[in-house]
Amino acid sequence: MSALTIDILLSPIIVDVAPEVSLPKRQTDYLQGGEARTLVKNEIEKLVDNVKDIERNFATISRNMKALDQLELFSDIKGRPITFHPEWEKLHDVLNSSLI
After folding, report:
1. DSSP state of 78
2. 44 neighbors 9 (Cβ within 8 angstroms)
3. Pick from 66, 50, 61, 63: which is nearest to 99 by CA?
4. pLDDT at residue 15 above 60?
C-alpha cells in the first residue's frame, strides 16, 4: 500500500491507498491544496455551529419544561403532579455525553 498525505486543518493525515488505486494528479493536487483545506474547515465550522444551536435549544426547552412543571398543570389519576423536566434532563445528559 502507498500513502497519500493530506494536510487538513492543523496536522496532516495519512490515507492509505491500495496499490491498484491511483488518484489522477489533478485530484491529488486538489486534496493537497488550500482549497480543499478551506472547504473542510468551513464544513467543520458549520457543524460546530449546529452543535451549539442544538445545545442552546435543549437548554431552552429544559428551562421551559421546568417552568411548566412549576405550574403543576398536569396530574395523574391520583392527583399527583406530572413533571417533564427530570426526563428532559436525562435526555439532555445523553446528548451531552454523546457529544463528548
Report:
1. T
2. yes
3. 50
4. no
- 100 residue type, one letter: I
For 77, the grid coordinates are: 389519576
CA end-to-end distance (rounded Å), the chain = 34
Amino acid code (one letter) for 25: K
Q: Please state the separation of Cα 32 from the chain's center in Å.
A: 26
Q: Is 48 exposed, middle or buried (0-12, 13-18, 19+ CB in 10 A)?
A: exposed
Which amino acid is located at 64 in the chain?
A: N
pTM over 0.70, yes/no: no
Place of cell 489533478: 26
> What confidence tens digit (pLDDT) does each residue in 51-60 have?
999 999 999 9
Would you state the cell numbers that stand for residue 71, as one nine-digit string? 405550574
Backbone angles phi, psi at 18, to 5 degrees: -60, 145
